[in-house]
Amino acid sequence: MSSETRWARRTGSVIGEAAGEGAQCTGPPPRPRRADLQHCAPVPRRDRETFPRDPVKTPASLQTLIDDGVIDEVLRPLKSGKEAAVYVVRSGDDVRCAKVYKDMAQRSFKQRVQYQEGRKSRGSREARAVATGSKYGRRQQEAEWKNTEVDALYRLREAGVRVPEPHGYFHGVLLMELVTDSEGFSAPRLGEVELAAEQARAFHATLVRDVVRMLCCGLIHGDLSEYNVLVGPDGPVIIDFPQVVSAGGNNAARAMLLRDVNNLTASLGRWAPELLDTWYGEEMWALFEAGDLQPDTQLTGRFTPDLRRVDLDSVRDAINDARELALIRQQGREAQDED
User: Fold this and answer.
1) Predicted confidence (pLDDT) per residue in 297-323, tens digit
2) Domain segments of the chain as ranges
3) How far apart are CA 301 and CA 305, in angstroms?
4) Where is the RIO kinase domain (predicted)?
């Protein structure tokens, strides 16, 4: 049985568990053809930095930062995603990026409740307001959602995880380091580079180490893949943390961790197929649950899974049947008392 076949069988249930019903796993992405390279090379792309810039329409939120002297100029848009729009800006002599978060009505991120489970509210009033869905509660929920990434970046940076350096949060805008490649252009995503097998293994080891450090901080990225890992001159840098998950307070934490690690393994396994036979996600979660995971823990990639799977639907049915039976018996006793 090939590595790809074993991988498809192994990851199907994990992806379905994290993504919900209807999710399917087709195994790792198809392996593209690769030049005989000894280092990573960006897929050719139009480097917009080398072209004359057209005037950029400055968003109101960034104009506020200009008026306050936080930044001096908006250079160009960098990307626009489901959660935010990112711009390249100049602040003094430094070129940075500014992440402008979209309002709740504009965002399209799915299954938000699942990701927010386990996050702590600032106080009982805020928690009640969020639970009732009041206007104040929605504002609090919006503020907490935007602050989540800011807090995570500072915590992870301090823990040694390779993430963009934050430079402050102003009026709903996150100002942070612009990750560049060795030539100073905006860094490509992991899915946009070709890698030699040795480089893929090195990147995988770096990312697994960073996931371990995140887990030791009590955090799981929750949406980690080749699309939110940038390739800088010193290796991979993890980005995009608004959906970060509490490892100890979220019931889906294990499934999300395994999905994160499996996504990275599938991507880098295109260049180093032996990675598809590793079990780093399962190994680190077992150590985390046992309280034995440390930031410098040396993982082996080996793990003996428990093949005895719990049929949750059957458990729920049994619980519901027991409740109905208890209710019927209670009603019967009440009827006898009335007689």
Assistant:
1) 999 999 987 666 556 666 666 666 666
2) 3-30+59-289
3) 12
4) 44-289
Please say whether the beta carbons of 106 and 100 come within 8 A. no
CB 22: neighbour CB atoms within 10 A? 6
Q: Where are the alpha helices (DSSP H) in the chain?
A: 3-19, 60-67, 112-116, 124-132, 135-158, 197-216, 253-268, 280-289, 312-338
Between CA 193 and CA 44 the distance in angstroms is 9
User: Catalytic one among 223, 234, 277, 313?
Assistant: 223
Half-sphere exposure of 278 (CA within 13 A, CB side): 22
Measure the CA–CA gap between 137 and 133, rounded to whole angstroms. 6
Q: Which residues pair with 101 in a beta bridge?
A: 84
Look at phi and psi of residue 133 and say left if phi exceeds 0, alpha if psi is from -120 to 50, else beta. left
In whole angstroms, what is the distance from residue 225 CA to residue 256 CA? 12
> What is this structure's pTM?
0.73
Give the model confidence (pLDDT) of 12-21 as tens digits.
655 555 555 4
* Banded pLDDT at 123 (limits 50, 70, 90): low
Percent of the chain beyond pLDDT 70? 62
The answer to whether residues 175 and 96 touch, using CB atoms and an 8 Å cutoff, is yes
Whether 103 sits among the annotated catalytic residues: the reply is no
Closest-CA residue to 198 (of 267, 272, 263)? 272
Q: Give the amino acid at 258.
A: L
Task: Quote the pLDDT of residue 48.
Answer: 42
Among 36, 240, 321, 339, the one annotated catalytic? 240
Q: How far apart are CA 75 and CA 53, in angstroms?
A: 8
CATH 1.10.510.10 fits 3-30+59-289, yes or no: yes
The CA-CA-CA angle for residues 14, 144, 294, to 5°, reads: 50
151 catalytically annotated: no
Q: Left, alpha or beta for 57 (phi > 0: left; psi -120 to 50: alpha)?
A: beta
